[in-house]
Amino acid sequence: TALEGVPYKVERWTPTDPDGIFVGWSVTGTGSMLSPGDTTVLDGDTEFEAVWRERAEYTVTFAVDGEEFATSTAIEGLPFTVIQDTPEKVEGIFDGWLLDGHDGVLVAGDTVAIGGDTTLEATWRDRAEYTVSYVVGEETVLVGTAYEGLPYTVDGLVPTDELLMFTGWSAEGL
After folding, report:
1. How far is CA 77 from CA 17, 19, 21, 87, in A?
2. Residues 24 and 51 sit within 8 Å (Cβ to Cβ)
3. In degrees to the nearest 10, what's the CA dihedral of 83, 101, 117, 36?
4. Looking at CB atoms within 10 Å, which of 12, 59, 144, 172 has the fewest?
5. Which residues face 96 on adjacent strands?
6. How far is CA 80 from the centre of its chain?
7. pLDDT tens digits along 69-107
8. Is the model's pLDDT at 112 over the cut of 80?
9. Cβ pair 145, 132 in contact under 8 A
C-alpha cells in the first residue's frame, strides 16, 4: 500500500519465468519503467506490470587441444549441463573440462551458469604405465609395457619345453 504524493519504494522482489528474463516493472498508463528498489511518487491507484525479454542462447564449444570437439547450446539464466561425450587420445586419460573463472574440473552431468558464448577445454592426466613380464618357470623371458585404458596385445612368443605343450599365458594381477 502506498500513499498518494509520498515516495513509494518498489519491492526488491524479482519475478521469475522459465521462458524469459525479467527487465523491470512497467507503470501502467505512464510509459515509465521501474526496477526493483527504485523509488517513485504515485498520484493514484497504480498498476505495475512485469516486462520480460527472451532468454539469449549461447554457444558452448568443447575443445580438445584448441580444436572443436563438440558444441551445445546454453540458455541465459538457466543451468547448463555438461555433455556426456568424452574425447580420447593416446597421450592421456580424459579428466574433464576446464572453464575460465570456474574452480575445478567439470565432468559429464555437472551444471554451471553460462553467461555468453563459451569454450570449455579438455584436461588430461597421464596414463599409468604397467610392466608386463613373461615368465617361464622362474625365468623372465620377455618384458613389455602396457598403458592404462589402451588395449594390450600379448606377445606372440611361444616358449618350448620337451615335456610340456604351451597352451598360453596366464595373467596375475588383473
Report:
1. 10, 10, 8, 28
2. yes
3. 110
4. 172
5. 123
6. 8
7. 999 999 999 999 999 999 999 889 999 999 988 889 999
8. yes
9. yes
Q: Is the pLDDT confidence value at 123 over 90?
A: yes
Q: Which residue has the cell 597352451?
A: 167
At 79, list the grid cell.
543451468
3-state secondary structure of 88: coil
Q: CB neighbours of 156 closer than 8 A, spacing ≥ 6?
A: none
Q: How many CB atoms sit inside 10 A of residue 25's CB? A: 22
In this prediction, residues 39-61 reach a mean pLDDT of 91
Q: Count Cα atoms within 13 angstroms, Cβ side, for 52.
A: 13
Q: Please tell me whether residue 70 adopts helix, strand or coil conformation.
A: strand
CA distances from 15 to 2, 10, 27, 50 (A): 20, 13, 16, 8
Give the confidence band of 61 by pLDDT, cuts at 50, 70, 90.
very high
Output the nine-digit C-alpha cell for 161. Answer: 619345453
Beta bridge partners of 145: 131
